[in-house]
Each structure stands twice: as C-alpha cells, then as structure tokens.
Amino acid sequence: MNSTGAERWTAHLMGNYGIPPVTFVRGAGTELFDDAGNRYLDFLCGLAVTGLGHSHPRIAAAVAEQASTLLHVSNLFVTEPQLEVAERLDRLVRSGTDLDEPGRVLFQNSGAEANEAALKLVRKFHGRGRHGVVAAFGSFHGRTMATLAATGQPEKHEPFQPLPEGFRHAAWNDVAAFEAALDPSVGAVLVEPLQGEGGVNTADAGFLRDLRLLCDERGLLMVLDEVQTGLGRTGAWFGFHHAGIRPDIVTVAKALGNGVPVGAVWATAEVAAAFRPGDHGSTFAGQPLVAAVAREVLRVMEEVDAPRLAEERGAELTALLETLPGVAGVRGLGLLLGAELTPDVLADRTAVDVARACLDAGLVVNGVTPTTLRLAPPLTVSSDELAEGIGILDDVLTAGATGGAA
Ligand SMILES: *Cc1c(COP(=O)(O)O)cnc(C)c1O
Description:
Number of strands: 17
Strand content: 15-25%
Number of helices: 14
Helix content: 25-40%
Bound molecules: pyridoxal-5'-phosphate
Radius of gyration: 21 Å
Distance between the termini: 19 Å
CATH topology of the largest domain: Aspartate Aminotransferase, domain 2
C-alpha cells in the first residue's frame, strides 16, 4: 500500500488486521494485480473463498443479471435462486453417503453465522440441559461469541471472557479424549474434517469414523464445519466424504459465493425440524444476489467437476512442493495444503516472514503457523501456474537460506 493509502487506512479503519501491505485492484483467474500494476499469482484465494478464480465470467454475469433483476425482499418471502441452491447443496452433501432422505438448508451470511445457527439448532433439538458441545483443540469456528467459545484456541478467548458456557475441547485426532470430555450435558461434537486455520491438520484415517460411532452410541449430533473444506477443495465435495461418514449438521460458507458473503447450514430433516418459525433468522441471509451467485457457483463447480480438479492439481502441487529443499513435509488434502518449512529456512524468520517475501516476489500465500505456509490456489489453477508459483517460492526459500535479501 502506498503512503497516502496507509495514512488513510490508519486514520479511519480499526486496527484489528494490521496495516495491509498491498492494495489489490483487479483479478482474473489465478492472477491478481495491485494499484502499481504488479502481477501476483493468488495461491490463497482470499482464504479459500474464490475457488473458481477471480472475475469468473459466469459468476460476473450472475452478479450483473441479478443486480438488475431483484436484490432484496427479506426472508418473509422466497426467491427462486434459493430453491436451486438448497436442492443442489442437499444433493452434494448426501452424495457418497447412505442418506436417502433429503435434508434441509438454512441460509446465513458467513461461516461464523452458519456455525452460530448450527449451535442454536443443537440446543433447540436437544432442549435445555443438553447444550454442551465438544470441539477440538486447534480448531477454528468463527469470531462471534459462541463460535469463539467453540474455537479450540484458548488464547483467543481471554480478552472476551465471559463467553457463552458449555464448550469444551479435546485433543485433535483423539477419540478417547472426546469421549473423556463427555457428560450428560453434552449434545454434540463439532469438528472440521481438516483443520484449516489451525495449521492444515488432516484428520487421521478412522478419527472421524470413530467419532461418528461415539455420537451414535451416546445420542450426540455430529456437526461438521465445512466452511473452509466444503465444495470440492479437498478433492471431494465435502471433507467428511473422505471418511465415508454420515453427518447430522454441515456448515458451509467460504467457496459457496466465490467472493460474495454467503453461508449455509445443512441438517437432516429430523434435526432441522427442531427449528420452528421465529426460532432463528437473518435479514439478509440467502437474499437474491448471493443466492443467484451461489447457484451459478454450484452449477459451474458441477460442470467442471471441482473435486476432480482439486484432486488432480493438488497431487501436482504436492509433488512440486516435495521437490523443494526448504520444505520438510506437506500436509492437507486436494488444494488445501500446508507446507512445513525446514529449520534451515526458519533459522532467522518465520513462515509469516516467508509469506511476506513471497508476496513481494508476486506469490500470495499465508503463514498459517510460525512454521507452516498454507497454499489454497483456485480449483481452476493451471499446471503452468502451479509450476510458476512454486518457482517463486523456491527462489524465496533459497534466497533466505544463502542469507540474501528476501
Ligand atoms: C473461515 C472459517 C470460519 C469463519 O467463517 P467467517 O466467514 O470468517 O465467519 C469458520 N469455520 C472455519 C473452518 C473457517 O475456516
């Protein structure tokens, strides 16, 4: 960002994000351009949001057409795009499961709100006294009061205490720890199928299946937070599909709007029936603009077979990363990958510094932990773009290792 921009930013915006380094003005596919005309490869997608890339012609057309047709009527009325989004989401959630009966969808405006609604649905379903929820350490579920309480990062809780009660945390990938955290007040478990914000931590084979069995045994609802992993990114329509399990509640958001803010909760018909008129609501949720865009996102994703793209390009990206001397290991699934950097690379800098050096060199990634880079390119990324991006990363890692300026 130039100095005038930085001044205006500091003078008028709250300081909860830190001063942004770049002002982006335009994007196309995997490419981004800043206000000085510099080109970048976007291997982050605004935090796994723009899965179909920037300025996708079909998405742009859907925005323009709906903008000049109907923007808002409130949830006292239904609009056509919502219906198709709900139908498609339901079909995709249930694909690869043994669920024959259609579930139900509730629109929200973001990931946190989708999780917040899911948590309220759990309370309404079980009734008073069984409001407890067990989530995983290292998880991320949002920034509202309840989703912050559900987030398994206690240091994030401290400044905002007291938070809603009833949330407890158990070690990731450890079903025995989840079981030990149960008591009669617990009504649900809440997990991501792959922890994104927590550092790209993949679930062990069997962890989600064992958790499902535990939920069945104890009459608990299994809530899958697919806000980051949903809609193809991991190489399956939903991350939980890799485990072959049946969810009770699934939340989605990020990729659903390809950049317009929209979230949704899916629940089995039995669970969804707990919400009666008046129990929950939102003025904007599922309004015509975002619903028309989400409808087009889902249509395009199905046409291009988004999960297959993520699986194929993800395998290529993993292989490329593994050839880099500065990369000690690669975690994740599909096109949601974490590259663990070597102690050598990290001798005098963190992964956050490396991500910053990548940005200066024209590659957008992020340091998701002090030692891990997160890579989440669009599902439409080309093999050439992957090779180009990894070339940039290689240069940045090598420059650091030889003591050169990054
Ligand atoms: C990003 C994220 C959220 C929060 O979504 P917002 O749209 O930022 O509120 C919740 N859960 C997971 C797994 C996420 O990655």
